[in-house]
Amino acid sequence: MNLTASLSRRSLLAAGLTGIAAMASQRAFAATRLSYWHHLTSPSEFDGLKRVLDCLAAAEPDLALAPEAIPNADFMAKFATAILARGGPETTMVVSERVDDMLALGALRDLSPRLDTWPGRADLPPDRWRGVSRTGGVYGVPAYAFVDWMYYRLDWFEEAGLDGPPATFEAFAQAARRLTDPAKGRFGFGLRGGAGGAKYVVDVMEAFGSPPLRDGAYAFDRAAAREAVGFYAGLFRDGLAPPTAAADGYLQVMDAFRAGRTAMVWHHTGSLREVSASLAPGRAFSTAPVPAGPKAHVARVSYACNAVTTRADDPEAAWRWVRFWAEPAPARAFHEATGFLPASASLAEAVTAQNPIYRPAVETLAFGRPPPAFAGYPGWASTVVLPAFQGVLVGNTTIADAVDDMARGLDAVLK
Amino acid sequence: VTPGRRDAGLALAFLLPAMALAGLVILVPPARGLGLSLEALRVTGHGFESRFVGLGQFRRLLGDALFWHALATSLLFVGVSVAIEVGLGLAAALALARNLPGTAVFAAAMALPYFIPGVIIGQMWALLLDPYVGPVNPALAGLGLVTGAGPAWLAEPRTALPALILAECWHGFPFFTLALYAALQRAPKNLLDQAAVDGAGALSRFATVTWPAIRPVALAAMVLRAASLGASPDLILVMTGGGPARATLVLPLYAFETAYARLDFGYAAALAVVLVALLTLPAALALRLPALGRG
After folding, report:
1. Taking CB atoms and an 8 Å limit, are B45 and A105 in contact across chains?
2. B84-118 exposure pattern, b = at least 16 Cβ within 10 A, e = fewer
3. Do B156 and A394 touch (CB under 8 A)?
4. In chain B, which stretches have pLDDT less than 50?
5. Complex confidence, ipTM
């Protein structure tokens, strides 16, 4: 049969139009696909995200999320590279320490016009927005909270005749001394001197009266910082922390606590599920607010937020996703899977009332402060503060020289 | 136009798309990197700075103590690792070349570490060397070499770099074993036999017959391995992150943290340019060696 004879011009046109109509209808009914980068890592966090996405599929069937997990340590590397190459995700998880760097890269969209008309905002008090608000713009929607606190071995405290968790640095050092027993392989404190440890050095310096910035102005006080580094490194030098402290990151300090090698460890509410899986809450361990320093009681309260990037082709769809996580059903689902406190005020109140182990977190919410946030802060903390502090721990440098290094590094960042 | 010229023109026309693609893939990224190294491209307290500074980043580099420290650490790490790996690899290759029963199985088992990704090797060795959960310190204590929990290998500047070298050598020596074992198959057996008949000892036979035969392969393998070690800090990143107190900060890691922790892309590009130049130099020198040329 002759092909040209069988395909008349009219039938070809009809077939073409049918094809175009089919494609158009498919497009109309296809879900909008959004890319989303996050830095969740533990199995419980992945389970939490899955539950949130299940809620999303039920509530917003026309939105399809393509989540991509990036290890926290590599997150800014990948994000900055992608943005500079004019790529990157349409939506992203963002924490307050990174907002300034992301804004400097021109990566985030201001959500304030949309927030003005969003009823869900009423359940998110003003403190939730501090970390993502800059000069009139709001660059994320809070999803869940990181509330700093301390885990301590309740059974060891009772065994040592200690009344309760220490409330001040001085009492903390005394308790650590009482609980350190080399014969039993026990140390008073799981000091994090490796990856991620800079945060605690900065916090202790602030508790001694030397924050990097105060109200946006340079406030680093070398004398106070020297005192702080002396106190904090002293815990290690006096043998109250494991000898591996200079290299210990999250995994090592939490493993040591769970395995019964350390009596106290500082972290945030996000590790409660993990600790509870190894030790009985309320019997083997309990929680307490981070002790107060001589000049300030520093415990961070920050929120993991979701943001729309400047790469989003469909900002409306992206906005619908980033606000979704803050709503009651997904927020509860994530909390149930992970133990993280939700950003929603009503939900946070409900879950903390149900579980007394959260009481210190509720106390901390009242006085806690946001982490330092300025462009260059994460880099300063990880590449200047931490190596300088490690130098003191391992005896390579003096406290004065380490603090001078930190001050010079801060000057360079703020210049 | 002669037929020869017409053929050459035609061949060029056919080759041009492939050459253009290869050029794009091979030349554009380094050219972009070189371009970045001439700019101040970084995040500052006032936003994203982007301006042309010429050779300014390279001048800055000369006065940067951390750069010189990272360079010295890199040279030590690469030099010692390659020396140990080539020694171990040669010993293993000579043992395999004796073709004893089970050699094939033994060779396959020996090659295994080389095919494990560096990130996994790093995690594995970090666990092995952990004084509380790893088996290394208890084994040393059993031999009476350490007391108590033993040294915190990765937390002390004196031991962190040697520990990394140990892990890297375990990972890398099979590369030399395989390369040198293949080269040994080319060693002239008749000359070895004659030398033995003439009363030459094992060392003398190795120096005069075996080594000259495998030298080109050994040099090429050393250059390749040095380039690979010098350029990829994945194992160091996993095991120590450059610490403690920058004791294991190597040049590629310094460039990485400059770019992605300090968000100073221009200076990181300058560090990368220097790194590439340093890695290319030994390769260029080695290619000019007569021994390698003959190979």
Report:
1. no
2. bbbebbbebbbebbeeeeeeeeebeebbebbeeeb
3. yes
4. 293-295
5. 0.85
